[in-house]
């Protein structure tokens, strides 16, 4: 049991960066029509080298396409991951607000929780948002 718990946490951490990046890329594209490396440098407050390395891994994993000095685009798989990440984030944030957490804190906390919440827990959060607390 303990090994399964730790494996899940390790797996969650491995996908966390990709999820954050596809979400940020999707937001940039929604806002201005394109996403450039500099958008990600500014969004994550990291170096250009960090963004380039991360984007290269994401390209290898089939989540984005890009060429030197060109915008970053999400693949179909990247778009699906961005949509799922946004949905999870929204459910967690809304749940935290529903239980009395301030909007500012809910936004900050949901950014970490969204990557580690199980499907079962996420479904329970959604039920509470949609139907209130069970009696």
From TrEMBL:
Keywords: Activator, Cytoplasm, DNA-binding, Manganese, Repressor, Transcription, Transcription regulation. GO terms for molecular function: DNA binding; DNA-binding transcription factor activity; protein dimerization activity; transition metal ion binding. Residues 14-75 form the HTH dtxR-type domain. This is Transcriptional regulator MntR. It is found in: Cytoplasm. Homodimer. In the presence of manganese, represses expression of mntH and mntS. Up-regulates expression of mntP. Belongs to the DtxR/MntR family.
């Amino acid at each position: 049991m303990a090994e399964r718990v730790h494996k899940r946490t390790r797996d969650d951490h491995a996908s966390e960066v990709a999820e954050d990046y596809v979400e940020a890329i999707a937001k940039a594209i929604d806002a201005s029509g394109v996403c450039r490396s500099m958008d990600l440098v500014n969004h994550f407050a990291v170096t250009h080298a960090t963004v380039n390395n991360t984007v290269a891994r994401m390209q290898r994993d089939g989540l984005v396409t890009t060429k030197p000095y060109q915008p970053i685009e999400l693949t179909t798989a990247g778009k699906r991951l961005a949509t799922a990440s946004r949905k999870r984030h929204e459910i967690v944030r809304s749940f935290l607000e529903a239980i009395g957490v301030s909007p500012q804190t809910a936004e900050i906390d949901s950014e970490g929780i969204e990557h580690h919440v199980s499907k079962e827990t996420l479904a329970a959060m959604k039920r509470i948002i949609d139907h209130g607390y069970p009696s």
